[in-house]
Amino acid sequence: MTKIIFALVYIAMDNTKVLQNLKLVFALSAGVLFSAFGNLAAQPISAFDTLKNSVSSDISIEFPTPLPKTSHSYLKPTDELYGEKLFQYLHKITLPSKIATSQSGYIAAKSYMYSTADNTICNKKPGLITFYSLVCVNGTSENGYDYKEHGDANGDGTWKDAVNTEHLWPQSYFDEKYPMRADLHHLRPTFTKPNSMRSNYSFAEVPDWDYSTSAGSKRGYNKFEPCDATKGDVARAMLYFMVRYYDKNIRDKINYSDFWINRVTMFLEWNNQDPPDSNEIRRNNLIEKYQGNRNPFTDDPSLADKIGAAVFKSH
Ligand SMILES: [Ca+2]
């Protein structure tokens, strides 16, 4: 019995976004216990207590702290909106008030990302969690090249790699124009190797690959699949980028069907599979302080389905 429950917990804990999974685990655990005792009609006991009591005392499990449910007043009007009207409301409400519009501002924004917005606690010290590798590199520097990989920590064959900035919507597709280039909501710190492997490829789920990180990010034939724990982050950044910049020239030299239209349904799925974790919410708060706008899909992932695939594809 304990082994069954442990296996279920392990499966859930193996995914860094555990909250949704834990609900399933608790439900399954309760079901297993009730079935085993042939007492499904008995007084329901707390699945959480059952689970805790069933774990032997010499093994420690760190149960995740549920994220506090927050409500954002700027999203209150979205209760009444859906489809194109919701898309347009979010377009207006996400206008950044103080975003960088120059090379120097772009460099400063990246420094803020390395030293503050994505600088969290990992290995019990300040550091970055590299986006496609999920490897912690400790430090507080404003320069990505100061964050050196230890050996080949992400298992991609490149040793002592350093960190630079990934643009989830590739820079070449908007001709490196501002403010898109410096918008931190679609920028992430990555090791340089997986960043160059992603190149400007469309995101996709790839059945075969010729490059991977130990976290599970992969390059297939002209496609790139982020590891499971970042799929939702990618999706919410891409949806944000479309809502915010659909009216800019963001389709330079691009196969728009392959890059966007054919991917929308997948992004909506990734958004639901991998809900925001504490680091994504934290960076959203810190980016608002820096550039004066939020990613509404991080604040409320259900907005994406309320807009719907057809509306996203139409832009
Ligand atoms: Ca490496």
Describe the structure.
- It is a single chain.
- This protein is of the alpha+beta class and 315 residues long.
- Helices cover 42% and strands 10% of the residues.
- The protein has helices at residues 2-14, 19-36, 47-54, 83-93, 103-117, 192-198, 228-245, 256-259, 264-273, 278-291, 296-299, 302-307, 309-313; strands at 119-122, 125-129, 136-138, 163-167, 187-191, 202-203, 211-212, 218-220, 223-225.
- The strands form 3 sheets. The protein has a 4-stranded mixed β-sheet with strand order 6-9-8-7, with helices on one face. Strands 1-2-3 form a 3-stranded antiparallel β-sheet. Strands 4-5 form a two-stranded antiparallel sheet.
- The longest helix is centred in the N-terminal third of the chain and has 18 residues, at 19-36.
- It starts with a helix and ends with a helix.
- Bound molecules: calcium ion.
- Residues 149, 152, 154, 156, 158, 161, 193 line the site of calcium ion (CA).
Q: Report the major sheet.
A: 4 strands, mixed
Helix/strand order = HHHHHEEEEEHEEEEHHHHHHH
Going by helix content, strand content and strand pairing, the class is alpha+beta
Query: How far do the termini sit from each other?
Result: 52 Å
How many domains would you count in the coordinates? 2
The number of E-state strands comes to: 9
Alpha carbon gyration radius: 21 Å
